[in-house]
Amino acid sequence: MHAWPASEVPALPGQGRDLRIHDTATGDLVTLAPGPVARIYVCGITPYDATHMGHAATYNAFDLVQRVWLDTKRQVHYVQNVTDVDDPLLERALRDDVDWTALAEKETALFREDMTALRMLPPRHYIGAVEAIPGIVPLVERLRDAGAAYELEGDTYFSVEADSHFGGVSHLDAAAMRLLSAERGGDPDRPGKKNPLDPMLWMAAREGEPSWDGASLGRGRPGWHIECVAIALDHLGMGFDVQGGGSDLAFPHHEMGASHAQALTGEFPMAKAYVHAGMVGLDGEKMSKSKGNLVFVSALRREGVDPAAIRLALLAHHYRSDWEWTDQVLRDAVARLERWRAAVSRPDGPPAEAVVEEIREALANDLDSPAALDAVDRWAALQQESGGTDEGAPGVVSRAVDALMGVAL
Ligand code: 5CA
Ligand code: ZN
Prior knowledge:
alpha/beta
């Protein structure tokens, strides 16, 4: 699949800092030490009801990760998937009486537009589940041949007992896992499974549903977790730097993915750090497609809201916290954007070096974007109150805000 156009990332004076970030698997802040090419896999959308503010907040977090890396003069190899065939997508297409491929294409196109407007850096490889199927089938066959997968009424399941590290990403107890498995795409109550938590790797063709050639697995379609493992291993290989997503992906999705990869390669975990963004809510509940309590990036854009203000609204919250979208959040962001634009519209101002360092320091410290915004707020207030004589300082601040946070002033 094609991704979306890249916005330019200005180079900044001085030295970027190495990123310290919270890793769910170890429960600790870890300082990442990527090579000259940092490798990141971010789980992409299931293309219906895109792009709501929860999606946008999660992709904002991983955009910041990349911008911090770019500032250290590393290159970034970024891979993202699109779950363009899965139960919830097919269910939505059926409900709305539309073709599932048309729905997926339309929503993916909208997502690309929203990502472009928000100045999110595009992945180098943007891969759909459907196009990954030829790579998924042999992995499932290998898992089966190694005894890590079994057949049940034509479907192929992964056996979580095949991985002695199972649980090593989310560290949940069995009861919590079972509950979340039922909520998030699993089928713990299906009779005949070896372990209720075992996830599907390959689902045999169902009447009226799309299916593909699965070689020795028979016709069918891929399970959700193996999709991301196949794409990540194909494009990044084992031991890449970060796998990212919202906190609702820690279990089962990232746990199962790490287990599949362990059974395939003998290594654990697949990513050096598992990074999870908090959930954005609306009216006291997690914003989700199934509940329908959604605020869309595209709807705000249509109303004339500047995408830079939407981005500032996301940045005003620490990526790991759960937070509520409200009209006030957006009003505050619009006001901040106006203040900042006024402050950088003059040719000179207070010195820029300190504020650039403060933004760097804040973001390198577990992506503390609220602290980064504070630093720019203070500089803008100084500019408004007493101005300054450093020629070109507003330009430096403006380039730093763009390079490190994707906000075009
Ligand atoms: N296609 C899978 C990942 S392989 C999927 O989870 N798709 S999704 O469309 O449901 O979500 C896309 C990303 O947005 C995921 O990282 C998910 O954790 C995140 N997300 C979904 N809802 C919210 C929310 N309310 N707040 C923050 N992030 C969210
Ligand atoms: Zn995924």
